[in-house]
Amino acid sequence: MGVATNRKFWAPRQQRELLKGLLFVSPWLLGFAGFTVYPILASLYYSLTQYDILRPPRFIGLANYHQLFFQDEVFRFVLYNTLYLVVIGVPAGVVTAFMVASLLNNEMKLRPLFRTLFFVPALVPAVAAAEVWRWVYNTNFGVVNSLLKWGGMSIIPFLSSPDLAKPSLILIHMWAQGTAIVIFLAALQDVPRSLYDAALVDGANLWHRFWNVTIPMCTPTILFVALTSMINMFQYFTIGWLLTEGGPNQSTEFYGIYLYRNAFLFFKMGYASALSWILFLIIVAFTILIFRASQRRVYYAGDGES
Fold first, then answer.
1. Residues 183-203: pLDDT tens digits?
2. Are residues 110 and 158 in the same domain?
3. Is 52 inside a domain boundary?
4. What is the pLDDT of residues 70-93, one digit of tens each?
5. Within this chain, do residues 78 and 192 fall inside the same structural domain, yes or no?
6. What is the 3-state secondary structure (H, E, C) of the chain?
7. Shared domain check, 14 and 117
8. 285 within a domain of the structure (yes/no)
């Protein structure tokens, strides 16, 4: 029976169909191999070498990784700054997006206009957004500090203070949650109305309905947004580089900025490749941690678990 099935599978007709299928997907396969698989394997090899683009790579084993963990003092600041951004910024962004989406999901006047306004930050190019926030945060003529000076209060050094630079960037991240808001809106509209009606009959007030119905039914979407936000925050670069370039006092020297600096300013491609692989392992570890921590807290309709 098994032999007959195997012969049927490898019949000439099936072989021709398999060949045609491979030919149709060959452009994607070639692109995937050339632009994804090869760069990944090449970066792994370069992480074991001393390579500056100008000269051929020289194999040095795990020296780059040893230097990262035991000799590079800046790397410790970078890791702390990045973890601060992830641990504080990701929950802040997710909570902000979910609360705004919950408000926009209610019946109100001009609701389409408000939804559009909250989504606009997701469409603004990073460079333009950085310039706007540079003006907002400016200590001399920024809109916030101008109002503070007009009111006789002290100015706030948003980007020039080591203690305030990271929270100021997190505030920008919370502002730019348009995509997450749209995703949450879609999830909120899928919550069955019958659940709210049943909770209302049982005497649940607005807060109880939100806490016991809305949030549990949206936990898969919350998990998805938190994971993607976490991955993006570990790779945080554009706004931070444009506004602070790692300053002041290396208080915003995040992982992406440090990796860019080593690769394209210092031309330490081998060292930068080692940094990228360490970042990959950190993201994988955090992803597994989040999945395991959320196993009993995420409700999937139809599986009977929460």
1. 999 999 999 999 999 999 989
2. yes
3. no
4. 999 999 999 999 999 999 999 999
5. yes
6. CHHHHHHHHCCHHHHHHHHHHHHHHHHHHHHHHHHHHHHHHHHHHHCCEECCCCCCCEECCCHHHHHHHHCCHHHHHHHHHHHHHHHHHHHHHHHHHHHHHHHHCCCCCCHHHHHHHHHHHHHCCHHHHHHHHHHHHCCCCCHHHHHHHHCCCCCCCCCCCCCCHHHHHHHHHHHCCHHHHHHHHHHHHCCCHHHHHHHHHCCCCHHHHHHHHHHHHHHHHHHHHHHHHHHHHHCCCHHHHHHCCCCCCCCCCCHHHHHHHHHHHCCCHHHHHHHHHHHHHHHHHHHHHHHHHCCCCCCCCCCCCC
7. no
8. yes
